[in-house]
Design brief:
- This protein is of the alpha+beta class.
- The protein contains three helices and two strands.
- It has a two-stranded antiparallel sheet.
- Strand 1 and strand 2 form a beta hairpin.
- The protein is elongated and about 50 Å long.
- 3% of the residues are buried.
Length: 69
Amino acid sequence: MFGRLNARGEAIGRAAATEAAMRVAERVREAAPGIEVDAGAAEVTLRGRGLWRRWLAEPSLRWVGGLLR
């Protein structure tokens, strides 16, 4: 009984994490044009030329989780 409940909770959590990663990726694309953004299962990867300099200059890139608000 608890096994099914635990599995259901894990599935709901994975789905929510994936959805949040997709939202963050979309908002980063809007906030920082020219940066490649890949969203996976609960992870967001940023790539692009000069990303380190942009990360230092743009607060939205330093804390991408803040884009979920």
